[in-house]
Amino acid sequence: MNVFDNFHVYLWRGNDNNCNTCLFESVLNEGRHLVVDPGHVMTPSYREPGLERLAQEMKHDGVDYDRIGLVILTHGHPDHCEAAVSIQKETHALIAMHRADEEMLQILGGRVDIYLQDGMMETVSGRQYDLQILHSPGHSPGHITVYWPYRKVLIAGDCIFYRSTGRTDFPGGSSNMLRESIERLARLDIEYLLCGHPYGHPGFIQGADDVRENFEIIMSYY
Ligand SMILES: [Zn+2]
Question: CATH no. for residue 154?
Answer without folding.
Answer: 3.60.15.10
